[in-house]
Amino acid sequence: MKAFYSIVIFSVLFAVCMAKLTPEQRRELEAKLLSECKGPSGATDDDVKGLREHEVPKTTTGKCLLSCSQEKLGILVDGKLSIDGLKALGAKKHEGNDKAIATFNEIVAECENISDSDACELGAKLMECMLNGAVKRGIDPKEGIQD
């Protein structure tokens, strides 16, 4: 199976689950996405580094960087979690791998009731939930779902 990668981030970005991309293409897309969100969120280089290392942000600027990324990926829409957007991203990432899609959707189901009136906090809560769901299933979020 392809790596679970970051939707757990980016949902990360993690997430940068945009299709069957090579690792280099994924890194380039991730860098572009983070670059586009860094200025508007006021994020620091440390915030960017933390997200790239699959760490749930602790700073407000890091959380807003994550939230911006999630919005660009369709995971957050108008400051609210889009389960359909999240599932669509996972389906695209794991296209052709029904087992990976099912596992991804199980994790999403555990996180579907996450809410917060602050979009930045919501993004961080979602990332934490997705990471916990992956770990609970023995998946290393940095490695992703393996065959």
From TrEMBL:
Subcellular location: Secreted
GO molecular function list: odorant binding
A GO BP annotation: sensory perception of smell
Glycoprotein listed as a keyword: no
InterPro entries: PBP/GOBP (IPR006170), PBP_GOBP_sf (IPR036728)
CDD domains, A to Z: PBP_GOBP
Signal peptide stretch: 1-19
One Gene Ontology term, aspect cellular component: extracellular space
Entry keywords, A to Z: Secreted, Signal
SMART domains per record: PhBP
Pfam families, alphabetized: PBP_GOBP
The UniProt record lists the keyword Ribosomal protein: no
Family the UniProt entry places it in: Belongs to the PBP/GOBP family.
PANTHER family in UniProt: GENERAL ODORANT-BINDING PROTEIN 19D-RELATED, ODORANT BINDING PROTEIN-RELATED
The protein's name in its UniProt record: Odorant binding protein OBP14
Organism whose genome encodes this protein: Sitodiplosis mosellana
